[in-house]
Write a structure and sequence with these properties.
The protein is α+β, with helices and mostly antiparallel strands and 255 residues long. It has 2 domains: 145 residues, 3-Layer(aba) Sandwich (Glutaredoxin); 105 residues, Up-down Bundle (Glutathione S-transferase Yfyf (Class Pi), Chain A, domain 2), CATH 1.20.1050. 50% of the residues lie in helices and 9% in strands. It has a 4-stranded mixed β-sheet. Strand 3 and strand 4 form a beta hairpin. 38% of the residues are buried. Bound molecules: glutathione. Glutathione binds next to helix 1.
């Protein structure tokens, strides 16, 4: 893929969302402090790419406003404008779905994605495993365990058990290899880690998964992972009051 040296012009964003834009940044990340958002900011930090950040406070449902639906028709974060490529409307190409964004960033940077066919396919398998399994199941565990005003034991149990089973599948792989794809740290590790390390918030016990824990600790210590997790701002859940506030904000999206 050839990337243009000149940058496509950004569409006008409504205030205050235009505040953090830098004219020279080739990439614009639309995000918030959540596992799906962190996947992209961690990858951008690992790749050392220059990007502007637009923070969308999703509890206000700004992500459902028409200007953002033009960027991501699904009305969710993350989304990315890549100004090095021109989209059909003459502006920068807009990419949505965190898995697609990770793939695009890795392919254009030539990093975090093995170039040998087998390693590439294994990376895609573990990436899709996260996109179709770990993310949706842990997301629903959060909804029923943390956010739903009505506590439905069957739903809580169903999503927590399924999340634990999926984390067990990661543990099984990590018993054999350092990273999900052998010795290579890839976008599949980033995607799965961004959800897996939040297991306590989902109420999922990982004490019987030592290989997962070893890998979670190793990734958590990476400087780029720490930086990426602090985009757009560090999420602090240090007390029951912090947790209650965070859950109350998330609940607003479900109304
Ligand atoms: N499959 C999507 C999921 C994106 C997603 O669910 N994002 C959440 C935050 S983690 C969101 O924007 N929620 C806002 C809403 O539901 O309106 C992806 O991986 O990009």
């Amino acid at each position: 893929m050839s990337l243009a040296p000149s940058l496509a012009p950004l569409p006008a964003l409504p205030a205050p969302f235009d505040a953090g834009l830098r004219p020279e940044a080739p990439l614009v990340l639309y995000t918030h402090g959540t596992p799906n958002g962190w996947k992209v900011s961690v990858a951008l930090e690992e790749l050392g790419l220059d990007y502007s950040v637009v923070d969308l406070p999703i509890s206000t449902n700004v992500q459902k406003q028409p200007w953002f639906l033009a960027i991501n028709p699904n009305g969710r974060i993350p989304a990315l404008h890549d100004r090095r490529l021109t989209g059909p409307d003459g502006g920068p190409v807009a990419i949505f779905e965190s898995g697609a964004i990770l793939l695009h960033l890795a392919e254009t940077a030539g990093q975090l994605l093995p170039t040998d066919p087998v390693g590439r396919l294994q990376t895609l398998s573990w990436l899709m495993f996260q996109m179709g399994g770990v993310g949706p199941m842990m997301g629903q565990a959060n909804v029923f365990f943390r956010y739903s005003p009505e506590k439905i034991p069957f739903a809580i149990d169903r999503y927590q058990r399924e999340s634990q089973r999926l984390l067990g599948v990661l543990d099984g792989q990590l018993a054999r290899t350092r990273y999900l794809v052998g010795d290579q740290y890839t976008i599949a590790d980033i995607a799965n880690w961004c959800w897996a390390h939040t297991h306590a918030w989902s109420g999922v016990d990982v004490s019987g998964l030592p290989h997962l824990q070893r890998w979670m600790d190793e990734l958590a210590a990476r400087p780029a992972v720490r930086r990426g997790k602090a985009v757009p701002a560090e999420v602090k859940l240090r007390s029951p009051e912090d947790e209650a506030r965070f859950a109350a904000e998330a609940r607003k999206m479900l109304a």
